[in-house]
Amino acid sequence: MGPLLTSIFQILYTVLNLYVWVLIISAVLSWLIAFNVINTHNRFVYTVSDILYRLTEPVLRPIRNVLPNLGGIDVSPIVVILIIMFLQSLIVNYGLLSPY
C-alpha cells in the first residue's frame, strides 16, 4: 500500500477518533443541561452546546428515527460510537493502518 493511501487512512482514523470524543462531550453536556448543573443562559455554554449539536445531529438524527423510543434514554450516540469503532477496526484489521 502506498504512503499516500496510508496517510489518508491515518487521517480518517484520527477524524473518527475525534468524532467519538465530540459525541461523548455532547452527551455529557446534554446531561449537565438536563439536570440543571449548567444552563444555556450562559452565552459560552449556549455556543458550545450549539456547535456540538450542529456537529452531531446530522449523524444522530437518522439513528434516532430508526431506534424505538426508550423512555427518555437516547442510545443513538452509543450506536454511532459502535459503528465508528467497527469502521476503525476495519481500517486496522485490513492492514491499512497500524493500531498504534
Automatic annotation (TrEMBL):
Keywords: Membrane, Transmembrane, Transmembrane helix
GO CC terms, sorted: membrane
Coiled coil: none
Pfam family, one: CCB3_YggT
TM helices/strands, residue ranges: 12-34, 75-97
PANTHER family registered for this protein in UniProt: PROTEIN COFACTOR ASSEMBLY OF COMPLEX C SUBUNIT B CCB3, CHLOROPLASTIC-RELATED (PTHR33219:SF14), YLMG HOMOLOG PROTEIN 2, CHLOROPLASTIC (PTHR33219)
Similarity-based family: Belongs to the YggT family.
Name assigned to this protein: YggT family protein
Lineage of the organism: Bacteria, Pseudomonadati, Pseudomonadota, Alphaproteobacteria, Rhodospirillales
